[in-house]
Amino acid sequence: MSIEDALPRLRAELGGEVRAREAMARHTTYHVGGPAAIYAVLETVHDVVAALRILEEEEVEWAVVGKGSNLLVSDAGYQGAVLVLGREFKKHAIQDDTLRAGAASVLAHLVQEAFSLGLSGLEWAVGIPGTLGGALAMNAGTPEGWIGQIVDTATLFIPGLGLTLVHGRDVVWDYRRSGLAGRGIILETTLRVSEGEPARIRAEMERNLKKRKASQPMGLPCAGSVFVNPPGDSAGRLIEAAGLKGLRLGGACVSTVHANFIVNEGGATAADVVGLIRMVRMSVKDGCGVDLRPEIRFLGSFEEA
Ligand SMILES: Cc1cc2nc3c(=O)[nH]c(=O)nc-3n(C[C@H](O)[C@H](O)[C@H](O)COP(=O)(O)OP(=O)(O)OC[C@H]3O[C@@H](n4cnc5c(N)ncnc54)[C@H](O)[C@@H]3O)c2cc1C
After folding, report:
1. What is the CATH number of the domain that holds 13?
2. Shared-domain flag, residues 19 and 35
3. What is the pLDDT of residues 33-50, one digit of tens each?
4. 211 lines ligand 1 (CB under 6 A)
């Protein structure tokens, strides 16, 4: 029972592509990360069911990944299966005041689609990269709004339970935390939207985008905010106050635009990024006693880093 046994079984049973030793640097916005032992695209619910059954039987651990825009993958890679949702989960449809969309839908596309149909509710999400599934798992948001506020239902595949419909009102949505995270694979969701005045929707989207462009580094690989804001304060302010803007380790650098972003200036490794995260965390803790909690998710082993 092993990865070597799981690979041919997955290839035989899944409709989607199954790759061995896939470089995760190709699938994260940091553009770093070693190989995933298995990288499987799940095109249908059948693929989801079959993949999880095979991986359980072969005792191979797995992780679901969206666009990798909140993810740091170890340089050593991941000794398990990275599962990615494919075509079947990129569809969406509008019915009355509901937007039903597959979890592999790109959030930015849904924001544009809602705008073009004169639907309000997603204006805050403009400029957030990633998939809808990733947004639900992270409770992605901004000070203007977050996804949990508009989730009507979510359909998950939960190992041992199967397809499960969860109502948004029954989920705990906290700042960058979601009760859906780690429960299984989010496959689809319905979002509450409402008819809106297109000019007002556009103005709000433009305002939010302008704010983002003025305050965040643009064009350099990163994974957004590295740390969550501690209660009543901002991680960026604390890091800047500690004098850490511009601090470098290898190819990674604390952004000079927004101190809560660590950017890949070129050739950074995951060890550089995680090393810088540790340096920032220690300096802020030593300086003002606040232990910053990472917002980004880690995949693989970081013990040697
Ligand atoms: C430039 C930049 C700006 C950003 N700005 C913001 C911002 O303003 N607000 C904000 O909240 N975030 C922001 N982010 C972070 C990131 O875009 C969001 O967290 C996004 O929602 C992650 O989606 P993803 O598909 O990339 O998820 P990934 O990074 O692939 O995964 C993140 C987590 O979600 C889980 N996950 C992904 N898909 C599923 C699924 N289908 N089922 C179950 N679990 C799943 C993964 O296992 C992982 O734990 C920013 C990132 C960048 C690079």
Report:
1. 3.30.43.10
2. yes
3. 999 999 999 999 999 999
4. no
Distances (CA, A) of 51 to 44, 152, 156: 11, 28, 15
Q: Is the pLDDT of residue 32 over 60?
A: yes
- Which residue, among 241, 230, 251, has the nearest Cα to 280 in the 3D structure? 241
Say whether 304 is catalytic: no
Give this prediction's pTM.
0.97
DSSP 84-115: EE-GGGG-EEEETTEEEEETTSBHHHHHHHHH
pLDDT over 60 (residue 108): yes
Answer yes or no: is 252 within a domain: yes
C-beta of 131 in contact with ligand 1 (< 6 A): yes
The 10s digit of each residue's pLDDT in 150-166 is 999 999 999 999 999 99
Pairing of strands 141-142, 145-146: antiparallel
Domain that holds residue 231: 217-299
Q: Using CA atoms, how far apart are residues 177 and 146, in angstroms rounded to an integer?
A: 11
CA of 173 to the centre of ligand 1 (A): 15
